[in-house]
Amino acid sequence: MQMGEGVEWALHSCLNLAWAEPGEAVPAARLAAFYDLPPAYLNKQLQALARAGIVTSVSGPRGGFRLARAPEEITVLDVVTAIEGPQEAFRCQEILRRGPDGSESIDYRKACVVSQTMRGAELAWRKELAAQTLADLQARVESRLPRTPAVTRQRFRELREL
């Protein structure tokens, strides 16, 4: 399975929003400039996050994006689903039905060993992503790089002056 780069961009943007000054809305252009990303494409990811209720969009001269919920209430799976969609990565097409012993009366999505294996792996993957919150990621980054929140806020101030 391969996720688009939008997932990485969205997760890093959410982390940066968590470290922004309290109450500050950060424009998409400033979030994009932080990592030298294409603003229009990042804005599409931010709009997807807004539709999912992960960020809110604030209009006006001091507008931009901010987290819609506390980092403890946003899971990594929430962000992945907002960007990639809720569909399953593996979709059993029940090809066993067309095989030599195939039967129209069997639900091969449940009976097929390949389907069961792939479904189990996806459930484990989703469970792991659902168990990790944005706050968990924040804490891990801050334990490794304690200056990250201050550095992020400083970078936003510098980008504001451009």
UniProtKB/TrEMBL annotation:
Gene3D superfamilies: Winged helix-like DNA-binding domain superfamily/Winged helix DNA-binding domain. It comes from the Bacteria. GO terms for cellular component: cytosol. InterPro entries: TR_Rrf2-type_CS, Tscrpt_reg_Rrf2, WH-like_DNA-bd_sf, WH_DNA-bd_sf. GO terms for molecular function: DNA-binding transcription factor activity. PANTHER family: TRANSCRIPTIONAL REGULATOR-RELATED (PTHR33221:SF13), WINGED HELIX-TURN-HELIX TRANSCRIPTIONAL REGULATOR, RRF2 FAMILY (PTHR33221). NCBIfam families: rrf2_super. This is Rrf2 family transcriptional regulator. It comes from Nonomuraea rhodomycinica.
